[in-house]
């Protein structure tokens, strides 16, 4: 069993979700429902600057495209995705 502590943004109560994934809809013991998004999750990403993206090595290009398609950022790719977002090459919400 997985234990992930959450804190309700409405009432402030801390509770265990018992779920492996952080993403999704969660309900606290007091009945408040809220959505939690994992920091490894990206929603609605797109490549904005194709010219600069094309200058990346093909292996990195493929990795970024896989991340965008899957919606999940592996731990070893977080730095790359952060830098691409900061440079405006990739835009994610």
Map the helices and strands.
Elements: E1 5-7, E2 14-16, E3 24-27, E4 33-36, E5 46-47, H1 50-53, H2 58-70, H3 78-86, E6 90-91
Antiparallel strand pairs: 1-2, 3-4, 5-6
Give a verbal description of the structure.
This protein is 28% helix and 19% strand. It has 93 residues and is an alpha+beta fold. The chain has two domains: 32 residues, no CATH class; 46 residues, no CATH class. A two-stranded antiparallel ribbon has the order 1-2. Strand 3 and strand 4 form a beta hairpin.
Short description:
This protein is of the alpha+beta class and 93 residues long. It has three helices and six strands.
Provide the spatial order of strands within the biggest beta sheet.
Answer: 1-2
Largest β sheet strand count, sense and barrel closure: 2 strands, antiparallel
Q: Count of DSSP helices?
A: 3
The helix/strand series, from N terminus to C terminus, equals EEEEEHHHE
Radius of gyration from CA coordinates: 17 Å
- The gross shape turns out to be elongated
Structural class of the secondary elements? alpha+beta
Total of domains: 2
Note the beta-strand portion: 15-25%
Q: Distance N terminus to C terminus? A: 31 Å
Number of strands: 6
Low-confidence stretches: none
Arithmetic mean of pLDDT: 84
Helix amount: 25-40%
């Amino acid at each position: 069993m997985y234990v992930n502590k959450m804190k309700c943004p409405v009432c402030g109560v801390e509770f265990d979700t018992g779920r492996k994934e952080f993403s999704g809809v969660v309900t606290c013991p007091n009945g408040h429902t809220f959505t939690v998004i994992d920091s490894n999750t990206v929603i609605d990403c797109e490549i904005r600057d194709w010219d600069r993206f094309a200058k990346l090595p093909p292996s990195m290009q493929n990795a970024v495209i896989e991340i965008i398609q899957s919606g999940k950022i592996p731990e070893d790719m977080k730095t790359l995705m952060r830098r691409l977002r900061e440079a405006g090459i990739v835009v994610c919400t």
